[in-house]
Amino acid sequence: MRNIALVAGGPKELIPPLNEYNQDDVTWVGIDRGAVYLMEDGIPISYAFGDFDSITSSEMDSISKTKQRLKIFPPEKDQTDTELALEWAIEQNPTSIRIFGATGGRIDHMLANIQLLMKGLSKRTEIEIIDCQNQLTLHTPGTYTIKEHKEWKYISFIPVSYEVRGITLENFKYPLSNCHIKIGSTLCISNELIYEQGTFSFYEGILLMVRSRD
């Protein structure tokens, strides 16, 4: 599997049009109510994960009649449906994983879903959370090139580890050179590129990058 898209059951109004991401090399996975969202958008489901406690019996019947492979779990378990689906996706060694429907609604689920990005670091799997207004990715030390995008104008960097050291931002409206920031800092919130592309780099810690629309 080259690319995997996971659709969780967050508020549908926060999920971008999924057909814009529907390409031949994408394997679509519905997580609980996310499977209903995929059916509503006419996107073929390859797998469906969850305890399905947030859908009706008629919706479950519709899911069961599709050609997907069901992985049903009991409601009482030690991991969320999204974590179980993501762990499975990482085991497939895909090029990338995109997660939709993981923000909004219950803030405990949203915060947990953001932390799930950590699971891709050890295998260097590219994992991205996407909603209508934001794109979230997690980064380990290194140098990264980022291109300007008119729709995703604002770029923020948030420390996830206790401290991130050596942050350098080039071709940004608010540049930095070898800056150290600790968790809880808002120094790197709401920056912008001033050229077609720029770079960000750091040598210690873990950094969350958020690209946002107006």
Automatic annotation (TrEMBL):
<keyword id="KW-0418">Kinase</keyword>
<dbReference type="InterPro" id="IPR036759">
    <property type="entry name" value="TPK_catalytic_sf"/>
</dbReference>
<dbReference type="InterPro" id="IPR036371">
    <property type="entry name" value="TPK_B1-bd_sf"/>
</dbReference>
<dbReference type="Pfam" id="PF04265">
    <property type="entry name" value="TPK_B1_binding"/>
</dbReference>
<dbReference type="InterPro" id="IPR007373">
    <property type="entry name" value="Thiamin_PyroPKinase_B1-bd"/>
</dbReference>
<dbReference type="InterPro" id="IPR006282">
    <property type="entry name" value="Thi_PPkinase"/>
</dbReference>
<dbReference type="Pfam" id="PF04263">
    <property type="entry name" value="TPK_catalytic"/>
</dbReference>
<feature type="domain" description="Thiamin pyrophosphokinase thiamin-binding">
    <location>
        <begin position="142"/>
        <end position="208"/>
    </location>
</feature>
<keyword id="KW-0547">Nucleotide-binding</keyword>
<dbReference type="InterPro" id="IPR053149">
    <property type="entry name" value="TPK"/>
</dbReference>
<dbReference type="GO" id="GO:0004788">
    <property type="term" value="F:thiamine diphosphokinase activity"/>
</dbReference>
<protein>
    <recommendedName>
        <fullName>Thiamine diphosphokinase</fullName>
        <ecNumber>2.7.6.2</ecNumber>
    </recommendedName>
</protein>
<dbReference type="InterPro" id="IPR007371">
    <property type="entry name" value="TPK_catalytic"/>
</dbReference>
<keyword id="KW-0067">ATP-binding</keyword>
<keyword id="KW-0808">Transferase</keyword>
